[in-house]
Design brief:
With 94 residues, the protein is α+β, with helices and mostly antiparallel strands. The chain has one domain: Gyrase A, domain 2. It is built from three helices and four strands. The protein has a four-stranded antiparallel beta sheet. It is globular. Its EC number is 4.2.1.96. It is an enzyme of class 4 (lyase). One of its GO terms (molecular function) is 4-alpha-hydroxytetrahydrobiopterin dehydratase activity. Keywords: Lyase.
Length: 94
């Protein structure tokens, strides 16, 4: 079920650095090297597969941007927050 904008903004308080824009939540993660970002993307891919919920990923030299939305609901759902939280844990495990 799609969350309201107010619900999304409230939930974002628990995810530092994540923002809400254009019907999705997103975060840019800086990395010192391209290979560090690529390794993070691979960890995110494993999480996404396990959850069967996949973010849009922008891999650039020095950063990775994750963009999460639930296309079938045309907005942000609990699935997106679960994915975001697990990605934060994956970063912490580095």
């Amino acid at each position: 079920m799609r969350l309201s904008e107010a619900e999304v903004r409230e939930r974002l308080k628990g995810l530092p650095g994540w923002t809400y824009t254009g019907g999705r939540i997103e975060k840019r993660y800086p990395f010192r090297a391209f290979t560090d970002g690529l390794a993070f993307v691979n960890r995110v891919a494993a999480i996404a597969e396990a959850l069967d919920h996949h973010p849009d990923v922008l891999l650039q030299y020095g950063s990775v941007t994750l963009m999460c939305t639930t296309h079938s609901e045309k907005g942000v759902t609990e699935k997106d927050f679960e994915l975001a939280a697990r990605c934060e844990l994956a970063l912490a495990e580095e």
